[in-house]
TrEMBL record:
Gene name linked to the record: yaaA
Protein name: S4 domain-containing protein YaaA
Transmembrane segments: none
PROSITE patterns named among the record's database cross-references: S4 (PS50889)
Alphabetized UniProt keyword annotations: RNA-binding
Residue ranges, annotated region (Disordered): 103-132
Molecular function GO terms recorded: RNA binding
Record SUPFAM superfamilies: Alpha-L RNA-binding motif (SSF55174)
Organism the protein comes from: Pseudolactococcus laudensis
Pfam families with a match to the protein in the record: S4_2 (PF13275)
Superkingdom in the source lineage: Bacteria
InterPro entries: RNA-bd_S4-rel_YaaA, S4_RNA-bd_sf
Lineage: Bacteria, Bacillati, Bacillota, Bacilli, Lactobacillales
């Protein structure tokens, strides 16, 4: 029997299917549940929004898979939160770097455009009033 640790009070069936890599996207949960048998505590279940709590058992007879849902300990929750915080920190850094790169790129394009406009003005013939 496989175990799946939840870090909140509950997890939905669709989210668990995605996080356990049974399906690739959350949108595939509805189709998966419609075409495969899933037993929730011994009862057939096909609602992707079904809330799963500590102590619940999921069975997938077609795959020979059984998952026991367990609640995380306080240490596991703290470790998980630290991982989420680090992930958020890295995402913020990447976002800032991307924004800085975009600003630099825009400045370079603007400078190139200004240079091009300057040379266009230099090479055009001067126009004198009354001259044809």
């Amino acid at each position: 029997m496989n175990t799946y640790t939840i870090y909140d009070e509950f997890i939905t069936l669709g989210k668990l299917l995605k996080e356990a890599a049974i399906i690739e996207t959350g949108g595939a949960a509805k189709h998966f549940l419609a075409t495969n048998d899933v037993l929730y505590n011994g009862e057939y279940e096909n609602r992707r929004g079904k809330k799963l709590f500590d102590g619940d058992v999921l069975e997938f007879p077609g795959f020979g898979l059984k998952i026991n849902i367990v609640a995380a300990t306080a240490d596991e929750i703290a470790e998980h939160q630290a991982e989420l915080d680090e992930e958020a920190r890295v995402k913020a850094i990447v976002k800032k770097i991307n924004a800085d790169n975009k600003k630099t790129e825009m400045r370079q394009k603007s400078a190139a455009n200004n240079k091009e406009q300057y040379y266009k003005r230099k090479t055009s013939k001067p126009k004198f009033p009354g001259a044809k």
